[in-house]
Amino acid sequence: MAKPVTMPQLGESVTEGTITRWLKAEGDDVAMDEPLAEVDTDKVNAELPSPVAGRIQKLLVSEGDTVDVGTEIAQVTTEDEPSPDIERATEEFPTVEDQPTQSPERQTASVRNSSDNGHSSQSAEDLRLTRSSPVVRRLAAEHDLEISEVSGSGIGGRVTKKDIEGYIQTRGRKTEEYVLPGLREEREAFAAESMPIHKEDTRKSLTPTRRAIANRMSLSKHEAPHAWTMVEVDMSDLVSLREREKAVFAEREGVKLTYLPFIVAAVVEGLKEYPIVNSVWDDDAIVLKKRVNIGIAVDLEEALIVPVIPNADELNIRGLARKIDTVVKRARSGQLDPQDISGGTFTVNNPGALGSVVSTPIINYPQAAILSAEAIVKRPVVIDDAIAIRSMMNLEISFDHRIFDGGVALRFLNSVKRRLEGYGT
Fold this sequence. Notes:
The protein has 11 helices and 19 strands. The chain is an alpha+beta fold. Helix 2 crosses helix 3 (about 120-130), helix 9 packs across helix 10 (about 315-330) and helix 9 (about 260-275) packs across helix 11. About 30% of the residues are buried. The protein is about 35% helix and about 25% strand.
């Protein structure tokens, strides 16, 4: 029997992937670790190496299809196994010696095909449930439902993530709820309306990356009760420091000196002071992460990606500047690997680079929070009862209110603010 190849998890929190192109066809030979397909996720585009050597017996997923992590996408017959033709012949004409030593797969098939066995449906159900992905089982548990209640549309009746979500929506519509008089009719009328599409309009299909980002952002807003707060930071001394040092730094280090490594360094120290901010939500528990792995949100014009700087607390300003420069360049050139976008514990967003002065970022779920650093703008401020022109920056944090409260968020922000205002003094 051929060995299955399943959709791998290409990055932490990645739940599904899209086969953008098969690099092998049915009947082709494939070597161990030889690229089998190109896979697109919300995190990274990568080649999928074959986990086994052999011959492609069957491709189970078409190009362009999106499937859950753990889904079988291909079958490969290895050299030390009999060919499919021999397997079929053996199953059709079993010898006496074969019968008492049937494999578990054949025993399951025998039970399933036996019309006089009272457990046939149970065996098929067991197979269907065991082939459900961890994502499906977790989603079912979160919504307190049994997978056996859901009709599966996947291969072999497997219940997919879309099956679970569809069932939840259907169940939700069946649940009666109290609404204000007239509101139900208004909802139904709104749902029945469709946005008119005119002939001069252009319909743009979603790319796998855009669809994945949409799903991730919707999940974050649905699962995490977002709260938001902001402080003002006087960056004047840091601006002066950077102006004095940027030319020498670029010549010595080979990278530009931006404000981002200073911000990340201040964030790292703040996370050490308030470790609850460097945590993730895990169903009925909060996991405080020992490692400080900072995700850097990178704008790609058509998408957003968050490469991770592992162990950022072990780097100084110089090391952070080089690392940030490297991951940003790799992200924009499409050269990130799955490990480059895995393991983040806290995310720093830098919309100020595009001129933003206020934003409310969405949490990179299941992380506890995300910080946004806005544009540095000169404006008048009052200092010791006098008006002065200072370089000011807004610093915001969106956080999961289940994990900590506004007091912690503000103390953390003020810790970051204090360090940023201390540079150059």
